[in-house]
Amino acid sequence: MALKIMAAVLAATLPFAASAQSSVTVYGLVDAALAHENPDAAGVSSRTAIHAGQASSRLGFRGTEDLGGGMKALFNVEAGFGIDTGVGDSALFGRRAVVGLEGNWGMLTVGREYTPIDTISSASHILGQGFYGSNLNAFANGRMTRRISNSVNYKSKAMAGLKFSAAIGLGETSSGPSQDLQTVAVEYQKGALYAGIGYATLERLASGDDREMIFGAAYTMGALEFKGNYMVGDQTGPNNRYSQANLGAAMAFGPGKLYGNLQQSKLQNGARGNGYAVSYAYTLSKRTNVYASYGTTVNNDRAAFSLAAAGSTITPPATALGADPVAYAVGIRHTF
């Protein structure tokens, strides 16, 4: 159904007259942190490392071409790399690689894109999917989908504060379950209030579809921000339901900002991990800030949940039930 809707939107955009002006922007972000990480597991040593702490380092290119009649063509390709070695991610433009059209009817793109669920997750997480204690560990465990390849994506314009998005990622298989992912989401933004809800299905096994869900909200009140979300990844099979809840707040103090987040991850079998995170960022200029970050995950005797930051995920061995990973870092981030 989602694919039919997108095909109809694409067909509606075809008859246009082209006369055009184009622009291309080069942008990026470089983030380096000196971190100490301890997985708290027997036989696994703690380590001191350099990697991204607040946001993943990246280099991107984006551009538009005015096609006339309120229509424009667009593209965005973005590559990730490690600041410690300079080595790029395994996929050259694995962060994002899309091309598409945009008009009064919305935006239609094809390629590798963030899922609507991830968009809501980022907008409703106080740590911005960075710093230790971020909700990136929900995506790192394979139960939630952050990006989709081979995808067709539609995003509407805002109408009375509401935006609709839908996407399908093709598994491109010739036999067995299709591996297709289909997802929809609705977001609402009105002044200081934001809310979003999303749903996805993945045809991974012949026995049934995996399901993913999210609800997130945010509210700003002067120098105070409050954000929270609840995510569910329900894979086919018994005792496979995973859930994560985040609740956080931030307060600005002049050029500084203090962040705090509480997190709880659970599995249907009784495994539970409680996360606690505190970070502080100090702005030096429009493009540069320094920061300090601390986080820990306290697992019960059935759990080995991880602790994640933008450039690192600390995962105890599956057999290290009850391990409590902990980490802290100081770093600098610069955008251009």
Automatic annotation (TrEMBL):
Its main location: membrane. GO terms for cellular component: cell outer membrane; pore complex. Keywords: Cell outer membrane, Ion transport, Membrane, Porin, Signal, Transmembrane, Transmembrane beta strand, Transport. It holds the Pfam family Porin_4. Residues 7-301 form the Porin domain. SUPFAM superfamilies: Porins. Gene3D superfamilies: Porin. It is a multi-pass membrane protein. It comes from the Bacteria. Homotrimer. PANTHER family: MAJOR OUTER MEMBRANE PROTEIN P.IA (PTHR34501:SF9), PROTEIN YDDL-RELATED (PTHR34501). This is Porin. It comes from Massilia cavernae.
